[in-house]
Amino acid sequence: MKNLKRHLLIAGACLVAWTHAAWAQFPDKPVTLVVPFAAGGPSDKIARDLAEALRKPLGQTVIVDNTAGAGGTIGAARVARAKPDGYTLLVHHIGLATAPALYKKLPYNTLADFEYLGLINDAPSVLIGRTTLAANNLGELRKWIAESDGRVNLANAGVGSASHLCGLMLQNALKSKMTTVPYKGTAPAMTDLIGGQVDLMCEQATNAVPQIEGKKVKVFGVSSTDRLALPALAQTPTPTLAEAGLPGFNVTVWHGLYAPRGTPPEVLARLNAALRAALKDPDLIKRQEALGLRIVTDARLAPSGHKAFVQAEMERWTQVIKDSGETAE
């Protein structure tokens, strides 16, 4: 019996040593970043820029794979069920934190089924409107909304999208109920806003800046606590919505990196180190800033800080969504 125990201990020690040695070689094949939205959107753009920046610190090709549908929940579920070896990762935005309140049933547990690797960026939104609106600033807009008696059409890119969430917060802050008009994506919503079929949209700066530059829409304010340092907004200084009369208004669309639950600690450490290195890449920083995005450099870049932040966002948005009554099936 003693010999058997000794042999088992030796075998266990050998297995642990072999496991550590095996993961020390990670990654030895391409890594896939799953984006739970269609190609061409802001999350896809961010993931592709990140993939290029991760290639050098990981020493491997990084592939972007779009798995769209159900407000991002299909792609998230795919990663939650993936083999926990670090080769299948998720790039997701604020929707990961709002999905539990928006959907009655989710095929994953947001806090339990993922390993949190670090936040990537913050993306402020801008409140924009059709060019034919009589209002030219937030004060005039608030008066026009109040006089419209609920007949204001507020576009969004679908349930759970950045524009949907920002719109909910806007109605809450204004204490005004608008008619929300959901679209199947940002492009058709923006097309109708430019064409004057809808009145307003609270959209991520990444998508709105080209329309502002082309003077195809009016801009009323920035959703973050700081003004955007972009040429398109520098020509006509645009206040934050908080400055313009909505104290405390702060909505940013952030993106984070996740692995399936159970991914080995050695792999998680390697991925977090690679993420930190990628976010210092000058080319990545330049491309992100050109879109109005801010690279995360604070405690949220650490796995523990990232998870704590997402949990706080879940609590914050649950009440907003509950008050709005706008949920998905």
TrEMBL record:
Record's keyword annotation contains Signal: yes
Kindly indicate where the leader peptide sits in this chain. Answer: 1-24
Q: Which domain of life is it from?
A: Bacteria
Could you tell me which InterPro entries the record lists for this protein? BUG, Bug_dom1
The answer to keyword Iron applying to this record is no
Residue ranges spanning the membrane: these are none
Q: Which keywords does the record carry?
A: Signal
> One Pfam match, by short name?
TctC
Family to which this protein belongs: Belongs to the UPF0065 (bug) family.
Q: Which PANTHER family match?
A: BLR1237 PROTEIN, TRICARBOXYLATE-BINDING PROTEIN
This chain belongs to the protein called Tripartite tricarboxylate transporter substrate-binding protein
The organism is Polaromonas aquatica
